[in-house]
Structures are given as structure tokens and as C-alpha cells.
Design goal:
Layout (H helix, E strand, L loop, with lengths): L11 H4 L3 E8 L4 E8 L10 H15 L2 E2 L6 E9 L2 E4 L8 E3 L4 H8 L4 E6 L9 H13 L3 E8 L11 H6 L2
Parallel strand pairs: 2-7, 4-8
Antiparallel strand pairs: 1-2, 3-8, 4-5, 5-6, 7-8
């Protein structure tokens, strides 16, 4: 669905198990939409912690995410919104990843064309993890180099084009 990548994205059977959480990082200067992608760990018969981590690495490569200790790369228009629903184009030629209902504030930011920072963690994180456990997991994963990220934005509504309007493109530089 997006521009070609050398990475083969994981199939929908894996991606359906990926957990997505939205949030907003607010500073006095701006508000930045955020999307955290994690996996709860092995749940299907053939899955192991290693295959889950490999699947997350494959997803990160397909999204063209960069190392968490460097400036996040711009990865193109990967978000699609329609009638309050959001999907992430992860590079599969037939499927997109639906994002659970975000807050109205997050959706408004994304629909206005604001950048969205995607953060993906390779190591599994339990669905029952609270905010403190998630924070510890992120910090530990970051220290191990197991966090990648990138900056995306929503596709233009008219034709769902790949390129953002000039005003958005300039804001992402």
C-alpha cells in the first residue's frame, strides 16, 4: 500500500496480535501524537518469544523505523483516518493494521496533519501492564537497543495521497 520497501512485512495473522496504544506528548511549544506498538508475547501454537521479537523486527523494517537513540526518521504518510477510525499502513499489499479507538484529542491532532511518533518495542509486553510497568519496560528495552521509532502523519483525505500538503511537509523538517 505504501512505497516499496525491501522488507517483507509480517502477515495479518501476526499483526492482529500487535497491541497499539495512543497518547499525546505535550510541551509548552507543541503537542505530538504518539503511537506505541507492542506485542503481548506468544499466544498462538507456533509462537515463541523469539518469533514474536522477529515479527516485531519485521514490522519495524517494513515501517522503516530507525533506532530509538537517533533522530526518528520520517517514514511517510502511514496513517489513514475515516469517521473516527484509524488504520496504520504497515506495508502489506492487502492489509492495514487497525488502531483501537484513540482519544478525540489524538484523532484531532492526526486529522489536522500533525506528526505522529510511532514507537515500537521488540520485547513482549503483557496486555495487563499498567503505566508504571510499561514505563519500566520501555526504559529497559531502550537501554538494550530494542526500541525503534519514526515519524508519520495521516494521508490527505482527498485520494489518500502519499505526500502531505506543503504546510505539513515543512513542519516535519
Amino acid at each position: 500500500m505504501t512505497s516499496p520497501s525491501t522488507a517483507v512485512p509480517p502477515g495479518p495473522g501476526f499483526v492482529i496480535g500487535v497491541a497499539a496504544a495512543t497518547g499525546i506528548h505535550r510541551t509548552p511549544e507543541c503537542a505530538l501524537a504518539q503511537l506505541l506498538l507492542t506485542h503481548p508475547g506468544p499466544r498462538r501454537a507456533a509462537e515463541t518469544t523469539e518469533t514474536v521479537e522477529d515479527g516485531m523486527r519485521s514490522l519495524a523494517q517494513a515501517l522503516r523505523l530507525g533506532p530509538g537513540n537517533r533522530t526518528p526518521p520520517a517514514i511517510g504518510a502511514r496513517l489513514m483516518t475515516q469517521r473516527g477510525r484509524v488504520a496504520l499502513d504497515y506495508g502489506h499489499d492487502q492489509y492495514v493494521m487497525t488502531i483501537p479507538a484513540p482519544s478525540q484529542d489524538w484523532l484531532a491532532l492526526v486529522e489536522r496533519g500533525a506528526p505522529c511518533r510511532i514507537c515500537l518495542v521488540f520485547a513482549p509486553l503483557a496486555l495487563t501492564a499498567d503505566q508504571a510497568e510499561t514505563d519500566v519496560h520501555l526504559r529497559e528495552s531502550f537501554a538494550l537497543g530494542a526500541v525503534v521509532w519514526g515519524t508519520t502523519y495521516a494521508r490527505c483525505r482527498v485520494g489518500w495521497g502519499e505526500e502531505p500538503p506543503d504546510r505539513i511537509r515543512k513542519g516535519m523538517s
